[in-house]
Design brief:
The complex is a heterodimer. By secondary structure, chain A is an alpha/beta fold. Chain A has helices spanning 34-49, 69-83, 91-98, 111-128, 145-154, 176-187, 205-216, 246-252, 254-271, 280-293, 302-305, 431-434, 442-452, 461-480, 496-503; strands at residues 25-29, 58-63, 101-105, 134-138, 164-168, 195-197, 229-237, 306-312, 314-316, 319-321, 339-344, 356-361, 368-375, 396-402, 406-414, 422-430, 487-489. In chain A, a hairpin with a 2-residue loop joins β9 and β10. Helix content of chain B is 31%, strand content 29%. Classes of the chains: A alpha/beta, B alpha/beta.
Chain lengths: 512, 322
Amino acid sequence: MLYQMPDGNPFVDPLRFGRRAPPGAIVIFGANGDLTKRKLLPALYRLAYESRIPPSFAVIGNSRTHMSDDHFRQKMREALQQFLEDTPLESELWESFARGLFYIAGDVNDLGFYQKLEAKLAEVQQARQTGGNVLFYLSTQPSSYQPIAQGLGSARLQEGSGWRRIVIEKPFGHDLESARELNRALHCVFSEDKVYRIDHYLGKETVQNVLAFRFSNGIFEPLWNRRYISSVQITAAESIGVEGRGAYYQEAGALRDMIQNHLLQVMATIGMEPLPSFDADSVRDERAKFLRSIRIMNPEDVPVYAVAGQYGPARIGTEEAPGFLQEPGVDPCTRTDTYAALTLFVENWRWARVPFFVRTGKRLAKRVTDIAIHFNTAPHSPFARDDNDTAARPNLLIIRIQPDEGISLRFLSKYPGAGMRLRPVSMDFNYGSSFGARSPSAYETLLLDAMIGDPTLYTRQDMVEASWKVVQPVLDVWSSQKSNLPVYPAGTWGPKESDEMLARLGQEWRVP
Amino acid sequence: MPASVQPESILKDLARLWVDLGQEEAATAVGNGVLRACAMTLVIATGESDDPQSLGETIADLMPQHPSRVIVLRVSASAEDALESRVFAQCWKPFGRRQQICCEQVEIIASPSRFPDLPKLILGLTVPDLPVVLWLRGVVVGEHPEFRQLLGLPDKMIVDSSRFDDPASGLDNVRMLHRRGWNVADLEWTRLTPWRESVAHMFDDQRNRQAFGDIQRARISHSGAVPPVSAHYLRAWLIRALPRQVELSFQSVPAESGSRIRGIALDGRGFSAAASLEGNCAVVTVNRQMQRSAFPAQSECELLREELSIIGVDTIFRGCLE
């Protein structure tokens, strides 16, 4: 009698074993670039180190530069030596990993290249038993996305004996129309379920923890609405400037670079409705539904609800920091925003009239990403008011994404001693102190997800288009203006216009 | 029970400890305060002959990942009527952070005559609303019948059957605890995780799963004259998953020291797979295709870390015990 194999692997122990990718190959376009060296290769090596990718796994790097497989391996080894964090580069493991690294030089705009790539894939499949599974990873200039998709289509590489998927880095378009056009171009070759748009913020452990926090703790859900929450502030601040990326950055700006993708996704994670189940469709449906609920600004709303700024020169500590317009590679007349802040409203029953204040910027006072949920103050305080009006301070729930990942709840407490004096205190959960375990990097999580075929933490076409719709009116108004942007001194929390935007609603920015 | 070792007095000592720590930290130039961390109560029952230094190092290594109120229960062989306690803190400062994180540790030394007092004492010291884990390190329950009352307290009990001279006795002890309905974990089973994971990886590939029914032989290699408890667990685990016709055998292989698993081999018509240890690497070969991966260090602390991350019932282990 033939033995009937169970559908899955009967040896798997989900309680103790980590997830593991099936056999396959990953083709990295732009393999000579910074992202590959700093993030992708270290993430793949770590996955191999932890045995999360199988022996037959292969990586095929591509760029225009001519080099042999061995030369590519050498370059990748150097990259790992430089950028691998908290993982030892062990020679035996490296040898085993390096055997799966291959390289093919070629111009992605040349259709002939894709025939060569097909041959290389066949060769690697034969040598490594990859099962015909291929993940195409586009780590190139955005202008190459369409030519690569078309090239893959011309050689019919989107089909094969195994699965085929394509991962695309941000920016996904530079406005709503270009995002739609890119989607159309991709869909000519890959169906939507094969397209993985990466937003590495969604792969961060602490952003995922927001879902755990909201949907596995019963005590917060009853409070998570307009009745109890007065406003939400989302801050993603960087203390550094453009750091040699001036030329790229002046084409993007803070609104496109951070808010359109990362921060709107974080906002959706905070505001989305409870999930029926933690699967890709449920999570992405709810995120998309939330993004579609954000009120689209009219042009006349933009000056009221959006603020742009540019950092000016300043002395920070003992260092003289240049202003954005003095940075190398930056056009001294550019109007690119290095700071952007928006007031957004969500048009649904849960969030009606609750402002979401979202801000991001370079050269701000410190590097921090967090979410502050401001609760309504107590309807009546029986305690005497002090000079600081302490009794009127709202409860705050702070979700810290980075650094010092964790959650704090601020509430008022009696100061010890005679009389009833109130002081705000903080109840703190610190991710690092409660779970000292190493957290996987966002790229480890997302690469493994793509190889396994789990798109939960990837953005979908409708999510991308919905978030472009939110920022497009702001981009349009800002691009039509001729006046200089407000300048904020480096090392501060942004232009005063941003404070004024909140003050108009009786609010003020929290100092993170 | 002498007044000084009542739960109330120990809790007061702990409260005083936190005040002192806070004041010490406030007196420093940075003065960021002390962060108190606690995710469970970890009761460790240990014998007098147990090396306190190695236990102390294990606890210190465990705390960053599993911050706990640790209660070390040291069994004294003394005939005198002894019950003593002391409290102290396990503190560390994570790299790049300015705030010190601390956990509480209570050490209780008890002579056999005071064992009946222990369950109530421990009950009063557990942290409310958080899991309680009992690690029987160097203490065999059968040797101290009074200890049995303690066993009703924890959500999980951890033993290490490899500490028994005779594997059969070790296995019997674990089975006895399981049969009595306690949620028991054995570090000998925990030692198997990388091995079991290696076997599972052999069948990640669909083509290998298709050859599953063709497997005819499975061989577990071990060092030492007789198979260790872990080899018996591995055998039980393989039997649960493999086709019925598979012939399963143990093979003793020479090795430097200790009784441990050294390798696993599966073969049959057109299929062969093996996992073995080479230095710090696991080498897994399936039909001549080989991969090396890190074989995690298996210090006592590493094993404990894995077990403490699972507070619920491990149904696969339970199945193997049955």
